[in-house]
Amino acid sequence: MSLNPPDLRPDLAPKMRLDAPRPGQPTIGMVSLGCPKALVDSERILTRLRAEGYAISPDYGGADAVIVNTCGFLDSAKAESLDAIGEALTENGRVIVTGCLGAEPEYITGAHPRVLAVTGPHQYEQVLDAVHAAVPPSPDPFIDLLPASGVSLTPRHFSYLKISEGCNHRCKFCIIPDMRGRLVSRPAHAIVREAEKLVANGVRELLVISQDTSAYGADIRFAEERGHRAHIDDLARDLGQLGAWVRLHYVYPYPRVRNLIPLMAEGLVLPYLDIPFQHAHPDTLKRMARPSAQTETLAEIAAWREICPDITLRSTFIVGYPGETEAEFQYLLDWMDAAQLDRVGCFQYENVAGARSNDLPGHVPEEVKQERWERFMAKAQAISEAKLAAKVGTRQDVIVDDIDADGIATCRTKADAPEIDGNLFIDEGTEGLAVGDIVTVEVDEAGEYDLWGRLPA
Ligand code: SF4
């Protein structure tokens, strides 16, 4: 794959250490030919595949299949594309062809009948379908960054942006450090460059993902290269200047998170923090070996809200963790009353093969876990409902995700991440709207998790 010059292919450059596959992880290789626009397509496909849990191989031998993104602009480019397909077939044997030359499928299959699939330029969905068919994803709810439904295709107006892989912590319930290894951060300039191309290609919202977004850059000593420093504060600021919505996921509750909040108040990144607290009681957090066990989170939350009153806080929790007493659980409920989080997910603890928490004493009976989960969710839902009700009568910026045949627009406010949070629906007057538009809406109704609104007259 010498066709990918390192400075043009950040995903495949030799020093790229991301995506070292774990045993059994589905792995894809990519050969990208042609113009910068084709390169954007390649990056977009790789970004999506990485987010779905695929590893990216820098060589033919390590890949379960190879995507060849072709160019068909000149005869010489066509010949080069055919050669590249031939080389990939010889070296790997399982080849998916996409790109400009894919517009002439017979030309390709005439020369190389063994290719698995041929898709045309900018047909991300079809390429991903072909990859899923050739090398099925192996979703793992314990380590994947996207919910299972996330294997459905990302609409073109938002895109995941993976900034690092792995984690340096050792939370006892989590096997990510064993599966994905220690933190490996991408160079900041490669991330910014990928983001610039996504935005130039129509992406309106960038969803920053990693296992530990606040730790970004720590493994490479927050190195500055080509004008971009690998620190989350700097990266968030750099991404915030691209003109798209920037949403930060998996931000761990370290005290330094406070430095990100002014960027939200300034409007550079969305006033939205996806911050997994997992529990509130210090003893439970200690038994979990959470990095944030000592952090005074309620005081931190108050400080964040002082700096950015509009901030939306999303978090996840585990109830029924080994040793969790009724008093610890009640402490968590009281903490929720005080914290008033906007969006909350909650899991009942379960053993995961290889997790150190399996061996802890005091496993909580299933019926107790269930009962605690119900009490927790009832509280979380009441808080969410009250928070949404308070939005009735306000004006909110929304991004349009879908418009159905009846003209009902499914949108999201800045407080809603795709696939995990709620929606805002517009029932009428949507004729002038298109998917990806960002418009201002008057909220006129609220439910438990969703809003309804109308376009101002
Ligand atoms: S911080 Fe803890 S829960 Fe998160 S990935 Fe690292 S070890 Fe797992």
From TrEMBL:
Function field: Catalyzes the methylthiolation of an aspartic acid residue of ribosomal protein uS12.
Catalytic function, reaction form: L-aspartate(89)-[ribosomal protein uS12]-hydrogen + (sulfur carrier)-SH + AH2 + 2 S-adenosyl-L-methionine = 3-methylsulfanyl-L-aspartate(89)-[ribosomal protein uS12]-hydrogen + (sulfur carrier)-H + 5'-deoxyadenosine + L-methionine + A + S-adenosyl-L-homocysteine + 2 H(+)
Key words of the record: 4Fe-4S, Cytoplasm, Iron, Iron-sulfur, Metal-binding, S-adenosyl-L-methionine, Transferase
Cell compartments where the protein resides: Cytoplasm
Protein name: Ribosomal protein uS12 methylthiotransferase RimO
Domain MTTase N-terminal per the UniProt entry, residue ranges: 26-136
Biased composition (Basic and acidic residues): 8-20
Organism, scientific name: Oceanicola granulosus (strain ATCC BAA-861 / DSM 15982 / KCTC 12143 / HTCC2516)
